[in-house]
Amino acid sequence: MVLETRNFRNKTVLKRKQAVQYLSLSLPDDGFTDDQFFEFCRKNDNLRIERTSKGEILIMALTGGKTGIRNSELNADFVIWNRKNKAGQVFDSSTGFKLPSGATYSPDLAWVSKERWESLTEQQREKHVPLCPDFVVELLSSSQDLGPMKDKLDEYIENGCQLGWLINPYNKKTYVFRPNSPMESMPFEQEITGAEVLKDFKITLSEIF
Question: 10 Å Cβ neighbour count for 45?
Answer without folding.
Answer: 9
